[in-house]
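Private note to self, pasted from the team thread so I don't lose it. Backbone tokens:
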């Protein structure tokens, strides 16, 4: 038994060393696993932070874009309101201009009617205008127009239709209504509306 003691002691020492080595390796592995886990967690945190920041940036961009779009819409709506107001103001002033420059207006109307008769391309035409212009056409206007037509070697029979509601200008048609030309002041302003808008915008906004 005494002879076995040193052997047992040696075995015990050897086992202890082995156990200590195993424990040491286990600790090192555990530390390595922990380090890698912490590094992975940090990486995940960084990715998460980046994603949150990116999402916040995108939301901010979207909100700024929406605000900008809404402001632009509001600006365009206000601008359109101003332009329409000025166009309406122009329309409201037309009767006053016609009244103050009656002779010039009637000369222009004769010229318009002759051009329309050429475009109508028919031997007979019915002309309608507001009550005041119709009375002038009946009194002397048609005679002046007929004289101008003869100077251009055109023989077109002219008759007057019932009065129409308009600031100025006229409508024209063939007797059977097959062709109709509308040349009222309102129609002319409407066709020129975009040009008027551009002129007003240029003067207001440069």
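Design output:
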């Amino acid at each position: 038994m005494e002879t076995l003691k040193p052997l047992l002691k040696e075995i015990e020492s050897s086992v202890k060393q082995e156990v200590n080595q195993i424990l040491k390796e286990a600790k090192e592995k555990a530390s390595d696993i922990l380090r890698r886990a912490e590094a992975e967690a940090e990486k995940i945190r960084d990715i998460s932070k980046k994603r949150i920041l990116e999402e916040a940036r995108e939301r901010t961009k979207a909100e700024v874009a929406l605000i900008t779009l809404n402001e632009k819409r509001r600006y365009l709506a206000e601008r359109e309101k101003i332009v329409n107001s000025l166009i309406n103001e122009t329309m409201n002033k037309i009767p006053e201009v016609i009244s103050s420059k009656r002779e010039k207006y009637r000369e222009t109307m004769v010229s318009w009617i002759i051009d329309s008769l050429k475009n109508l391309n028919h031997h007979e035409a019915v002309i309608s205008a507001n009550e005041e212009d119709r009375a002038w056409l009946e009194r002397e206007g048609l005679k002046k127009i007929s004289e101008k037509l003869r100077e251009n070697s055109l023989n077109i029979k002219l008759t007057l239709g019932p009065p129409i509601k308009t600031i100025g200008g006229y409508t024209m048609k063939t007797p059977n209504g097959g062709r109709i030309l509308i040349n009222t002041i309102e129609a002319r302003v409407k066709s020129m509306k975009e040009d008027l808008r551009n002129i007003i915008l240029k003067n207001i906004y440069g």
